[in-house]
Amino acid sequence: MSHHIVEVKNLQHVYPDGTIAIKDVSFRITHGESVAIIGANGAGKSSLLQHLNGCLEATSGEVMIGDTRLSKGTLPDIRRTVGMVFQNPDDQLFMPTVFEDVAFGPLNLGLSGSEVELRVRESLERVGAGHLCAKPPYLLSGGEKKRVAIATVLAMSPDILVMDEPTSGLDPYARRQLMSLLREFHHTKIFTSHDLDMVLELCPRTIILYEGGVMADGPTRDIFRNDALLAACRLEKPFSMQGCPVCNKNGDAKKL
Would you kindly state where each structural domain of the chain is located, as residue ranges? Predict the structure, then answer.
């Protein structure tokens, strides 16, 4: 079985205060799929993603990456395969300079100095952040931090890319740049987003979470055409599917 496959089986997570974040979630994502996990705030999206590379430990159920069950013993290998970009880039940036942050992962893979430098330069250029190489992360804007955080993961050359709200904090140009990058990543991609137009453009498949459980899993366009489902899950259609708000249903401009 390909190590690009992600399988979640009857996953449940209960936080120490008793909050049930994930309820009996199961799905299988195959090699090369691009899948969005969407839902209203508090639906459990970030908690679910953090199980895919062991940032959170399941209360029950399991996560499989290919033939490998995620556990404390397999965690190092899993994290080489599954690259995780967190919603808050400050959770990933902790070194004195951007270069050192992006180099941290490749160095821990045991790569040579020249190979590490090549990966750092290429990864930063891919996200339009090459000019930030020598800067301390604390001096970066929110959008710059996001781009550097993405570069830290790309530098690891993961087979599976997991991203929590990747366009959050990005300006329109950086958003388009990121979407272009994601189109070029031909391995498995899984991300959460409130940017439903990006979901519509990049993900043929969408999973809706509601109160910790899977409410729907299917073709993205079919899900976005289901008004009753979206309303029940406190979601709306992407802007591109809503039509012009100042035009009537026949396409004629309303009189103002």
Answer: 6-90+158-241
